């Protein structure tokens, strides 16, 4: 791992803090941020999806409980317990 880092540092010259800050500001100027309407719509979609999957998983869990209790009842009747 140290060898890989050494090979990266050999050809590159160190940049100053000012140069780093300048490049960071340039990158931030090219960045776009979502509008408040986009954030609101995305939040609503996420909330709806979470509620849907919570209800779906609850129903599937209850179906498994019902199935396993029925299977347990059937086995106990067959075994005569």
Overall SS class: mainly alpha
The value of Rg in angstroms is 30 Å
Number of helices: 3
Shape: elongated
Order of helices and strands: HHH
Range of helix content: over 70%
Descriptive overview:
There is one protein chain. This protein has 81 residues and is mainly alpha-helical. The protein has one domain (2-79). The protein is 84% helix and 0% strand. It contains three helices and no strands. The chain is elongated. The chain starts with a helix and ends with a helix.
Based on the model shown, name its key terms.
3 helices, 81 residues
List the SSEs and their pairings:
Blueprint: H1 2-11, H2 17-30, H3 36-79
Structure in a nutshell:
With 81 residues, the protein is mainly α. The chain is 84% helix and 0% strand. The protein has helices at 2-11, 17-30, 36-79.
